[in-house]
Amino acid sequence: MKLSLGIVGLPNVGKSTLFKALTKNDIPIANYPFCTIDPNVGVVVVPDERVDKLAEMSKSKKKIPAVVEFYDIAGLVKGAYKGEGLGNKFLSHIRETNAIVEVLRCFPLGEIVHVENSVDPLRDMEIINSELALKDLDTIDKTISTVEKDIKGGKKEEIKSLEVLKKAKELLSAGKLIMELKDEPIIKNIQLLTAKPQIYLLNGKPEDVPQNLTDKIKSVGADYAVMDLSSSEVDLGDLIRKSYAILNLISFFTTGEDETRAWTITRGEKAPQAAGTIHTDFEKKFVKAEVINWNKLLEAGGWSKAKQKGMLRLEGKEYVFQDGDVTEIKHG
């Protein structure tokens, strides 16, 4: 499973600086809006000591950690939903991602200009979320007219879709996000931006972050990480771990002399689906999985020793994989 996050925010809040820190890629960073025109895509390794420790134990030739794709999406401005600045293009890039990282500027005014001429992260958050909502309302209106035609044409199964779309329109018009509808087929199908999980990156020192901002973020069911992107040592582990958490993702592992590898799945997946991430045939031909927690495997000192000590569990098709499981899949 590929995890991708779109980095959004107003111009000059630190998005490209974040992207540069994430990927160590040299991309243009300039003190003016619309410096970033095409989305820069960076692949970032998920920091995970378990991969290192298992690889060391197995003397693996290769280590393959889980990765996250970050899309650096150019600065939004008021009116982006109707194409202001370079809005439409950027908003369409966000559709491709699993979640949104909203960068909010908390550091004070200095040499770096702010597109709204003052620092107010709560206002900026409202501008961004309004643009996402307005774009979604536009998409919903177009979809409603298509669905209504389908219902008139005899597609009665579309009645439920119409109800969901009207509920989404009602919520967005009232200034609310629509996370509660994110699993509805029609919402997934039209890839609404406000149905995506959000994580806020508050760019500044902890003392720059106002309490009313963190309260507001919690009230919309999102998470946040505080990070001073101007410092020379930026620790991004917290952001990446929180991104995993908001998407309800976990890692399981395979390990041996050839390679140790982290596999990303959604929490709650059963053994055959988890096996299918390794190879599609494994899902179809799944028989059972030998499983052990990574810590227990390290304590045992290796796969064969764990087997001798009777520490490996044989799990069938109903087994739900846990974060940190190490497995060998048995298939037909």
Describe this protein's structure:
Helices cover 38% and strands 22% of the residues. The chain has 332 residues and is of the alpha/beta class. A six-stranded mixed beta sheet has the order 2-4-1-5-6-7, sandwiched between helices. Strand 8 (249-255) and strand 9 (259-266) form a beta hairpin. Helix 4 packs antiparallel against helix 5 (159-173). Mean pLDDT is 87; it is low at 29-37.
Features:
12 strands; 332 residues; alpha/beta; 12 helices; flat; 6-stranded mixed sheet; 3-stranded mixed sheet
Q: Helical amount among residues, as a percent range?
A: 25-40%
SS-based class: alpha/beta
Gyration radius from CA atoms, angstroms: 23 Å
Give the averaged pLDDT, no decimals.
87
Distance between the termini: 23 Å
Summarize the main sheet: 6 strands, mixed
How large is the count of helical segments?
12
List how many beta strands DSSP finds.
Answer: 12
- Regions with pLDDT < 50 over 5+ consecutive residues? 29-37
Strand content: 15-25%
General shape: flat
Order of helices and strands: EHEHEEHEHHHEHEHEEHHEHHEE
Question: What is the strand arrangement across the widest sheet?
Answer: 2-4-1-5-6-7
Specify the oligomeric state: single chain
